[in-house]
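COURSE: Structural Biology Practicum
ASSIGNMENT: Worksheet 4, Part C
STUDENT ID: 0417
INSTRUCTIONS: Below are two proteins. For each, the amino acid sequence is given first, followed by its structure token string. Answer the questions at the end about the second protein only.

PROTEIN I
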Amino acid sequence: MKISIKKSLSDLQGLIILPFFESENEVKLPENLSHSTISSRVFNGKKDSIYMLEDEKNLLFFIGLGNSDATFKSIQTAFRRVTAKHESIFEEDFNIIFSNDFSNEHIQAAITGLKLGTYRLSHFKSTEKEKKDWNKINLTLISENSNLEKIAKDSIALASAQIETMKLVDLPANEVTPTYLANWAQEKSKELGFKVTILERKEAEEIGLHAFLAVSQGSSVKKSPRFIIAEYRHEQAKKHLGLVGKGVTFDTGGLNIKTAGMVHMKCDMGGAAAVLGSFTAAASLSLPINLTAIVPCVENSIDNDSFLPSDVIRSYSGKTIEVIDTDAEGRLILADGLSYLVKNYNPDSIIDLATLTGSAVGTFGYECAALFSKDQSLSSAIQEAGLAVGEKTWPLPMWDSYGKEMDSEIADIKNYHGKPFAGAITAAKFLEAFTDSHVSWAHIDIAGTAFGDSEFAKTKHATAFGVHLIIKFIEKL
């Protein structure tokens, strides 16, 4: 989608999108259009309403956004519907007119929504008609906003990173293997100019990433583990942020095999995808931050070499772990990822994202992610960033009494407490044990928000939850 900027309404032809906030009065159209007003009985900007009007020169597409205090997410969704559900009205060129009622955030929501609406799940369909090439579509933005060009450029970069994130999660596990993710990161590093290091099984063994390797013991050679280390540095950076993402490309549950919902377990690398997506977005936007991302990628499969319940395994931190349940595998690879990040980089703050527990879904459903941190300022900043862009998080307690649930008789810690309560909290307490008491660490359990149902597909699909949250968090530092 190519974008150009105009301040006047002269020579506008073809599709013109006109967004309006709700009003009881008749809708007044910009000058130079063939119509001057629209009766409020026909269209008044009510939320989720649309109206189309065609003449010899233009197709006018009205979008109702509701009250002027409409949220970022609601505006983004309204615009996403246009490209997702009205694809046929788009030809080579189209236009959007933003009145002075639209803030920078409103405009960003609109442009990211339009871009997100171009994403389709039909990656492998051979019988579908030829797909529209949105890269050949020209969008002209008309507004008096002096920041419009930067807003548009940044919005397209952000939405593009979100689409890449969704694709990583939506593609099947026979495509998105640990090697695929490693190669993807390397290709992006060449394109955007950051550093990537990939550790394969031998290198990981040599430096002691034993918990990470244990999870992958049952996977085939072509799905062997990859430990991704990405580094982005900016000369004007004042802060160093560390990111860790859970990259289980498929989770059978291991020998504690899942009994339901396994078809969706390609999404168990949603945390890895969100970290990679936000990392590449930050690099694309040239944000003034130093970033280090650790993305441990494995497949948790079943084989005669699979790790077993009751195994005691070592970890990068030196702590020993009693394996109670092989389906509590994500925290094992995150443990080594967190330890490696703290020991070798010790960033100012650390955020990890993971589709970690069903308990988080049981607590919050699909409305928001579970947030864990003892750093109140970090927790508040994450919550505020998420609320601003429609990616909600809400804190759960990190009291030390929950940590006692993870005590092991035979090892330093166990990976699962085996009880039907506080599963998300005890998982967070397990991870905390591998942060070396870092004072500014947050864990975000995105099990209920990374993958789900929506109006934009007939099946469950990726959301890219976490990408915009991390970018907004960085922008507010």
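PROTEIN II
(use this one for the questions)
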Amino acid sequence: MKMYFPTTCKVLMILCVLVSSSRALEADAENVPCDITIQDSSNLTLNCSRRNIDEIPEKWPERINSVDKDGHVLITFFNNTISNVSQVPAVPGKRVAISFKSNEIVDIEDDAFSNIEGLVYLDLSNNYISGEVLRSEIFQGRYKNGTYGNIALETLNLGHNDIHSLDRYLFQYTPNLTRLYLNNNPIEILDHVTILALASATNLQVLDLAKTDIDNIPLDAFKGLTKLQQIDLSDNRFVTVPESLSLVGASLKYLTFNNNPIAELNDDSFVGLTNLIELEVGENDYLDEVKRSTFSPLKNLRVLHLCHNRNLRYISHNAFRGLKDKWTLKEVYLDDNYLSELSTDLMPWNKLEILGMTGNNWLCNCDLANIVTKQEAGTKFQIGEIPYCAAPMRLSGAYITNITLSYCPTLDSTSAVNKSRGFTLSNLKPKHVLYSILGVALVACLGMLLGLLVNAMKSCYNNKIRSQPIRYININSDTSYA
């Protein structure tokens, strides 16, 4: 045993050193505030998320300077405890994105982003920022020659904060702003200064106003936003589609209008939206009717989402009036409504590329059979998205693509071919001739019997019923009165 004791001690000492070293490395790792991932000299990510960081660092790790001047840099402080955004250190790279999502931000200092010339994306969502905190000085660039410069900001996410109104000069130093997210803020009313702020963002292309509790958009709200292409008005209190959208009808391509208390869509709903490509109207619990000419203004529509409207029972057969000759729609989704029937001439079904109809109470009648089979709508369903029949009972649960209703004359292709060729005597069969002769003879007999009956009634009337004529006498010459 004595012979092996020194060796055992050495081994134990080595193990102790290794354990202590590993613990030291772990401690150092915990003290490192951010992780850097470098794909190449043009792409760098600085991950500072979930590190219990409560303030902006005064400087970045040295390795951030390895990105070249035209590179892309992403810095994320997601899910920390930062309450005040102080001036952010300079970041190399031509395009820089910074996320402060899900912190505790209540204040932002002036010139907070002036050191980052390439800042194009800024996420301040899921914080406690109020409208009073937001001011133009936050986004001003470097001070030079007596004036503040602009910053390159293109996307600004202010969603999920405590904003009621925007400062009218908020976007004074962000002329390149193209995407603005204001969703999930208690705005309620688009007041005058907010409208002025929006109007100053003349290059705006995307505007998100979902879940802001607004029920009206003033007519001049979008004045000057000639480049606006996409707007989300979901989860608000609109009872009609706002008329003010027509002011951006020449540029607007995507409209989302889910979960609003509208009762119907009609020919006034989408007036002026001639260049709209995609329309989404879903999850509207009060919507029960789509009226005549509703979609007529949408001359360039490609995709229509009309889904999850649990009380939608009726779509007028003229809802697409005026569009059928110049049909542009490629995808139509009517899933999860309360529809049971559709008109065969609602749209040119065979011109669609994708059709969604699941989750409705389909009555598998002749019209639906016509749409699915003769007009080829059944070939437009996606795999696993084939709707079922709800009625009649004998077809309940069957795929609507499997319905064959032999008693529907419109599905008789032979009859349709014969009709297209016109009628000739050769089309008549012997039984048809016989039935025709018998029919004519029957009508003639009935006519004769009716004539005899009329004559008999007239004769009876003349002989028995009609009163006799009154005879007058001269009482002076009548001896019976003498």
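ANSWER KEY EXCERPT:
Q1: Residues 430-465 form the longest helix (36 residues).
Q2: The helical segments are 5-31, 192-200, 366-374, 413-421, 430-465.
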